[in-house]
Amino acid sequence: MGVKNSLGYLRDLLVDVIWLTPIFPSPSFHGYEVSDYYSINPSYGDLESFKALIDEIHGAGMKVILDLPLHHTSVQHIWFKERKNFYKWASEGTNINERRSWDGGFVWHPSKSGYYKGLFGPCAPDLNFEKEEVVSEVLNVVRFWKEIGVDGFRFDAAKHIYDDHERNISFWKKVTEIAGNFNVSEVWDSPKITDLYAKVTGYAFNFHLFGSLIRSIKEGKPDHLFSALLDLKSSISRYFNFLSSHDTSRIASQIPDVRRRLMAFAVIMTLPGVPVIYYGDELSVTGVYDPYFPEDVMEPFPWYESMCGDGQTRWKSLRYTLPHRGMSYESQERKDGFFKELKKWTRFRSENSWIDNSEIENLRVEGNAIIYNLSSEKFLTVKHDFEKFQTDIM
Ligand code: ACG
Question: 102: Cβ below 6 Å to ligand 1?
Answer without folding.
Answer: yes
